[in-house]
């Protein structure tokens, strides 16, 4: 059975929850730069998981595909929209991605996954109040597969960078900032910022280029296309296994980079992962 929630909370969410049949567009993060006033921000770890939207009954991917979690996994989940990450732990993104995209879920894999909630998108209150609402809703949950991403008040740039270095040294990916006074909104804005030592972006694989030398007979690089139509090559960041079985043409990949060249292309672009949320056959 689903867990009952307080009447006031259900009433506050009812209108927004019933306003759409498909999951809404998600909030997207901008990039933090030194100089941003941090006094109204909350900070949390940027998990290297799979973004997932819980609509009260099912999980949806960023691309609008369903993640078919076992019934036992979502037993006890609140019947309200929650935004978060399906997560196995640091450094396990590839394993996680394969598990959640299967059309037929594999129980042993899903028993290692948690849904880490970081927002209640249908609650029309400032984020600081949504934090309190998440604590009241998620932390008492009887489900061992549901948890809340820890949120703390940000202080200053130096402490933020120190926290970033600590997370990265422990195998984490980075930090996230959310403006405490902001209402939930979709699209990209300064209300939500990612804090990393490098930038990242997405591009579509256009072609494979053969390798040479120690990579003869394997992938050398991929030609990718950004949203603005510009193309460039990415030849680093791939494991030998990925060079044997590279991201397919048409796949969307995430890459990291360090600023831009004089011609406006990403500097030192390196492959991070496939951003593939299409269902995968058993």
TrEMBL record:
EC number assigned by the record: 6.5.1.1
Catalytic activity: ATP + (deoxyribonucleotide)n-3'-hydroxyl + 5'-phospho-(deoxyribonucleotide)m = (deoxyribonucleotide)n+m + AMP + diphosphate
Gene3D superfamilies: 3.30.1490.70, DNA ligase/mRNA capping enzyme, Nucleic acid-binding proteins
Cofactor: a divalent metal cation
Class of this enzyme: ligase
Transmembrane segments: none
Signal peptide span: 1-21
ATP-dependent DNA ligase family profile domain residues: 123-228
One of the GO BP terms on file: DNA recombination
InterPro entries for this protein: DNA_ligase_ATP-dep_cent, DNA_ligase_OB, NA-bd_OB-fold, NAD_dep_DNA_ligaseB
Gene Ontology molecular function, alphabetical: ATP binding; DNA ligase (ATP) activity
A Pfam family hit: DNA_ligase_A_M
Protein name (database record): DNA ligase
Organism, scientific name: Marinobacter salarius
Gene that encodes the chain: ligA
